[in-house]
Amino acid sequence: MRGIRVTLALLQYPLSVRRCSRTACVAPAIATLTYVYADSTAVLGPLALAAEPGSYDLCSVHAGRTSAPMGWEIIRLPLDGRAPEPPQASDDLMALADAVRAIGLRHDEPAPPAAAPARDAEPPVPGGRGGHLRLVQSND
Known about the structure:
Elements: H1 2-12, E1 31-36, E2 41-46, E3 55-58, H2 60-65, E4 73-76, H3 91-104
Parallel strand pairs: 2-4
Antiparallel strand pairs: 1-2, 1-3
Protein name: DUF3499 domain-containing protein
Pfam families: DUF3499
Organism: Tessaracoccus lapidicaptus
């Protein structure tokens, strides 16, 4: 009886439509899931123009239920092709950005050049290496 239900479900959709990659699901695919292993990221976006190896076409039910493996991030792009809306910034973040921008746009007098640090006139220790470190003898 189960085989008859699957056959009837296959007749419900045209054959030229790509199907969901999930086992026993015959619904038309509306989204493509791709894994970016180097970044530990899964990207779920609109259906790709062509089927690609390593990507999975998903129906609306399975696209909504999809989760990323533990420790991975999932990026969900809008399935209707629109650009994602940027998240609204908090008032504190905007105030900080405005303060930094205001300081960057100020026209202050340039700071005077810093004087070179005075170097000690002691000769280097014999047998010592030149560089930024030197041996200082104590008076004890």
